[in-house]
Specification:
heterodimer, A: ABC transporter involved in vitamin B12 uptake, BtuC, B: mainly alpha, two-stranded antiparallel ribbon
Chain lengths: ~300, ~290
């Protein structure tokens, strides 16, 4: 039981970052290989705040999100004007730079890492934060901002023509996305109680992007499925020992070739066939008029 | 002054290995417009192939270099067939290629860990520790040898691309794949050739890399620096990749001589600086997107 809770807690921490990445990648159409960097910033911020400055965990959690967000604004200002692959490469450079900077800050432990962090995250607190995160994201996507994000994803030039400030909207998306990653990092630090820069390597950013894509881009449900599945899958494959990561890699290649939309690409939970069937059935039983013709004769 | 020259020579020698790797990234980028992150895996595998050729098969160094090059060529072509061709047939967005490449690189790295194991392997000493003395400078024979092989390979590549019929077809396809297909160029074959060329150079680079450092499964991560070099020089540009690599090699060596722990950070700082101030790199083609 303990073990399952552990895996699910880690899945929740990953989900927090993937939700943010899903907003950036799935809804705004920008790709990032640097989210481990934001996570790293969040983790260290909250470690410093709680251990050195004795700030309560909740305050540190919010602060780490905001610090990661602030850094993202800086990064965004510099790099969001880049076209195509170049933004992605810039985020890759950013993520690795962040890790290497922490590697060189001796007062924070440098490469040896930062230990002695209080264990404040558990299954309940992590998933509570996730549920708040999901709820906020659903509200956001149904707002004007959400529609602006999607418009930019679909057609940048057309969005600019109808008066959307493309740069600002992208920056907002990156900002919110980095806040999620920063909070994820804080949860991670307070779950592991020990962090070191190598926890946040490029491969970690890659894993988040893979989760978002396998789950399905442009769907919050997809992010949830992706984070859960790809955290649990390597655990289920433990019996094959060293081969599990081989299978993981192969699964990524096969899925991207066979089902590039991901598991829930562009669809939300309410759009799934069985839910739609249940809703129709529900409508048939409880409404007198047939909803098919809109109530007209 | 001697110190300076010595570091310069070391820098150029590391830079030439980067160049062999970076050219692979650039070639693929020029024709398919994506960053082939599985390239590092090919380099890592070729380092292993060279190692096993020398240790198990007891072939000479030249034989090992040849075997590793052939092996890497084959693997690179195979990767393209498995991981990229199905996507290309569907003209999938660039990111799918990158994800596929990332998956492939995870697969290759862990395949090595699962079969060979995570232990570091060290090449047997090949040229002893012999150095050539030039005044106060000492240059290892291995470095000179690497530099010569790298130069020959790169010149060979440039010759192939500029002078042969197939090379011209490759250049046509990088300029406009669709139009060259209409002109009767078999683009599938050209893509395979590009991967084969990148793989062959990766094969040489892998063996050199293994000799200079050690052979281990995560070596693919180091090759990210070659990718930075390719961006530095300008993605998609062959001379850019070479110049960028040599420059990066020199900068890295000097930074390492000053403060060794800042070496990697400098590399990525250069990457960001290049992207912010001149995203097309030193000599990259201008990729203004037309909506």
């Amino acid at each position: 039981m303990e073990y399952y809770l552990q895996v699910l807690t880690l899945a929740g921490i990953n989900l927090m970052v993937v939700l943010g990445l899903g907003l950036l990648t799935g809804f705004t159409g920008l790709f990032s290989f640097g989210h481990a960097g934001f996570m790293c910033i969040g983790a260290y911020t909250s470690a410093i705040l709680t251990v050195t400055l004795k700030v309560p965990f909740v305050v540190a959690l919010i602060a780490s999100g905001l610090v990661a967000g602030a850094i993202s604004l800086l990064l965004g200002r510099l790099t969001l004007k880049l076209k195509g692959d170049y933004f992605l490469i810039a985020t890759l450079g950013f993520g690795e730079s962040v890790r290497l900077i922490f590697d060189n800050i001796e007062p924070l432990g440098g490469a040896r890492g930062f230990s002695g962090i209080e264990k404040n995250s558990n299954f309940i607190s992590v998933w509570l934060v996730c549920i708040i995160g999901i709820f906020f994201l659903i509200r956001l996507m149904n707002s004007r901002y959400g529609r602006n994000f999607k418009a930019i994803r679909e057609e940048e030039l057309a969005s600019a023509t109808i008066g959307i400030d493309v740069f600002k909207t992208k920056l907002l998306s990156l900002f919110i996305s980095a806040i999620y990653a920063g909070i994820g990092g804080s949860l991670y630090a307070h779950y592991m109680t020990f962090i070191k820069p190598t926890n946040f390597q490029l491969i970690k950013s890659t894993e988040f992007t893979i989760m978002a894509i396998i789950g399905g881009l442009g769907s919050i449900t997809g992010s949830v499925i992706g984070a859960l599945l790809l955290t649990v899958l390597p655990e289920l494959l433990r019996f094959v020992a060293d081969w599990r990561m081989v299978i993981y890699g192969a699964a990524v290649v096969i899925l991207i070739i066979v089902r590039p939309k991901g598991i829930a690409g562009g669809k939300e939970f309410k759009d799934f066939f069985f839910i739609v069937w249940i809703r129709r059935l529900f409508n048939k039983i409880f409404t007198k008029e047939d909803p098919g013709n809109g109530g007209k004769l | 002054m001697d110190q300076f020259l010595q570091q310069l020579i070391n820098g150029v020698s590391i830079g030439s290995i980067y160049a062999l790797m970076a050219v692979g990234y650039s070639l693929v980028y020029s024709i398919m417009n994506f960053s082939n992150f599985a390239h590092g895996g090919v380099i890592m595998l070729s380092a292993y192939m060279g190692y096993f050729a020398i240790v198990l098969l007891k072939v000479s160094f030249g034989g090992a270099l040849l075997l590793a090059t052939l092996g890497a060529t084959l693997i690179a072509v195979l990767i393209e067939r498995i991981a990229y061709r199905p996507l290309r047939k569907r003209s999938a967005p660039t990111l799918y290629f990158i994800i596929s490449a990332m998956g492939m690189s995870i697969l290759l790295e862990n395949l090595v860990i699962a079969t060979i194991g995570p232990q570091f392997k060290t090449y047997p000493i090949i040229f002893a520790e012999s150095t050539i003395q030039l005044g106060n400078l000492s240059i290892s024979k291995m470095d000179i040898f690497m530099l010569i092989i790298a130069a020959v390979a790169l010149v060979g590549l440039v010759f192939f691309l500029n002078k042969t019929r197939t090379g011209i077809a490759v250049r046509a396809a990088t300029y406009n794949a669709r139009a060259s297909q209409l002109m009767g160029v078999n683009v599938d074959r050209i893509v395979s050739i590009v991967f084969a060329l990148g793989g062959a150079l990766a094969g040489i680079a892998g063996v050199f890399f293994g000799i200079r450092y050690t052979v281990y499964a995560q070596a693919g991560i180091i090759t990210n620096k070659a990718f930075v070099a390719a961006v530095f020089g300008g993605l998609g540009s062959l001379p850019g990749a070479i110049v960028g690599s040599i420059l990066l090699g020199i900068i890295e060596t000097f930074v390492a001589a000053w403060r060794s722990q800042l070496r990697d950070l400098t590399t990525f700082a250069i990457l960001i600086a290049v992207l912010v101030f001149k995203p097309t790199g030193l000599m990259g083609k201008n990729t203004e997107d037309k909506a």
